Amino acid sequence: QVDVAAMVQLFGYVDVTDTGFIVAVLSIAFNPLFWNVVARWEHKTQALSKVFGSPHAACYCLGVAILVLNCVRSHCFTEAMKSQPKLEGWDCHWTYYSGLAISAVGTLFVISSFLALGFTGTFLGDYFGILMEEKVTSFPFSVLDNPMYWGSTAIYLGWSLMHASPAGLLLTAVVAISYTIAVLYEG
């Protein structure tokens, strides 16, 4: 039997009908949907490669679009957190530094993933016909699958803890669910 009292208490701090919260949820869900649809469309049609004159130019443009969308998502996430109440018991040094540590680990996974894959490896170059010579198995891929997704999720979790934000924790769950669906779709 599961005790749902903690979840009920957590949801008591979150207004899921707040416009900022809804926008954050939509931006979180939109990003992986966007890049997967565009990448699969490119793979089938090579339309972006034709428009931009080369697969590399098209991949770089998609990568920039993804980075901009990630900035928008992070902004929406932060604004939604700021507009909702904090959890008083978590607004302390211990929670802040725990969140900072979790964010640091997440950042390590994201940056090391990017360095291992490069720009085109990170931003769906394989859909543009830009293939790596061999599968990357070094850190962080030697530690876990999809380290960029889970590193990003950890960054949001840490950010939520640093701000003692129940809304942030709920939005982090949306991030994790979105990435889980993306992994299933990409696999």
Automatic annotation (TrEMBL):
Q: Which GO terms describe its biological process?
A: methylation; phosphatidylcholine biosynthetic process
Q: Where in the cell is it found?
A: Endoplasmic reticulum membrane
Which membrane topology describes this protein? Multi-pass membrane protein
Q: Does the keyword Endoplasmic reticulum apply?
A: yes
Q: What class of enzyme is it?
A: transferase
Reactions accelerated catalytically: 1,2-di-(9Z,12Z,15Z-octadecatrienoyl)-sn-glycero-3-phospho-N,N-dimethylethanolamine + S-adenosyl-L-methionine = 1,2-di-(9Z,12Z,15Z-octadecatrienoyl)-sn-glycero-3-phosphocholine + S-adenosyl-L-homocysteine + H(+); 1-hexadecanoyl-2-(4Z,7Z,10Z,13Z,16Z,19Z-docosahexaenoyl)-sn-glycero-3-phospho-N,N-dimethylethanolamine + S-adenosyl-L-methionine = 1-hexadecanoyl-2-(4Z,7Z,10Z,13Z,16Z,19Z-docosahexaenoyl)-sn-glycero-3-phosphocholine + S-adenosyl-L-homocysteine + H(+); 1-hexadecanoyl-2-(4Z,7Z,10Z,13Z,16Z,19Z-docosahexaenoyl)-sn-glycero-3-phosphoethanolamine + S-adenosyl-L-methionine = 1-hexadecanoyl-2-(4Z,7Z,10Z,13Z,16Z,19Z-docosahexaenoyl)-sn-glycero-3-phospho-N-methylethanolamine + S-adenosyl-L-homocysteine + H(+); 1,2-di-(9Z,12Z,15Z-octadecatrienoyl)-sn-glycero-3-phosphoethanolamine + S-adenosyl-L-methionine = 1,2-di-(9Z,12Z,15Z-octadecatrienoyl)-sn-glycero-3-phospho-N-methylethanolamine + S-adenosyl-L-homocysteine + H(+)
Query: What is the designated name of this protein?
Result: Phosphatidylethanolamine N-methyltransferase
**Species in which this protein is naturally found:** Donacobius atricapilla
Name the lineage: Eukaryota, Metazoa, Chordata, Craniata, Vertebrata
